[in-house]
Amino acid sequence: MADQVRIIGDPALEPIRQKVLAGQRLSLEDGRALYATRDLFTLGELANLVRERRWGRKAFYNVNRHINYTNYCVLQCRFCGFARPFGRPATDGYVRSVEEIAALARQAAQRGATEVHIVGGLHPKLPFSYYTDLCRAIRQECPRLHIKAFTAVEIVHFARLPPRRSIAEVLSALREAGLDSLPGGGAEIFDQRVHRAAFKNKIGAQHWFDVHRVAHELGIPSNATMLYGHIESVEERLTHLLELRQHQDVSLRERRAAFQCFVPLPFIPHGTPLAHLPGPTGLDDLRTMAVARLMLDNFPHIKAFWVMHSPKLAQVALNWGVDDFDGTVVWYDITKAQAGGGNRQQLTVPQIRRLIAGAGCQPVERDSLYHELETCGGAKQ
Ligand code: SF4
Questions:
Q1: What would the pLDDT profile of 137-160 be if each residue is shown by its tens digit?
Q2: Who has the most CB within 10 Å: 38, 118, 142, 178?
């Protein structure tokens, strides 16, 4: 495979190709060249080479269920079409009860789900006990269901609820209640200029990394995202990737857990205060996934979250550095406004396996920690 990678159109990629073939780490300058090149096919081929070194032709998916517990939020990030302000009339604002969430989890487990993925807005009134009760109730209902819940933003919000707690206390209490891992949301773009302009009241890079550092020290695995295609520059995307890579180096060397997966999330303008922006194109999506695979040499997995990329583009991305297709999802409120009001966003296992096989890959069901599962090839959900 390695010798088959040939530079077709862009000599600037030749030194990068040599580095990739030698397994050497790429620099910021290399990242700039990868973003600048018009030779998207060689970029994809290099990313696919790295992906195949790790995983061959396997492409992972899981059977999961997303649950959003509330869309009320004390913040108003400019790229968000999900949050509803608390205290003002909102016909579509909601808070799900612990019992309701436990019932959704039970229903998902009965249909073959191995994971619930739970995130929500920053509700000003819910006490910390709501979140621990939520984990405990799911754990009691479904002892084997993996609970992946709460972005770093939510964890910091919980720590500020009275009485104030440290990040370690919050994470320890949640883990004791049943939490298994953290999703990677809320990272957005780490750069301070973007932070000030697009989400200045939300936590910045330092807090985000603090939460993931403590999680890794406690042995709680986590994931990482990047919301791209709004007001950030290519340079700011690359710096974001390099900061993640640096954190991962330390976690792998010194901590009890690390990032499992990187998930590039395309900004979807519709329904947000930044609706005048065009958002990323399909080629920008592909390029970003490929660049992520090449730059993040210490991340095991790169995911195409099909709900935001579309199933078809996620399928194409499986040959542009991506090895994980995410899961069945079932319900995803975060981008429902952008999706034209529809929030039931589900693929069945046979549909996922067909898309993966159509990309020339071998579909492999995984659990939340990327252990391969025996699968019957499509009886679930
Ligand atoms: S992105 Fe998250 S923190 Fe920001 S307004 Fe939306 S729900 Fe709230």
A1: 999 999 999 999 999 999 999 999
A2: 118
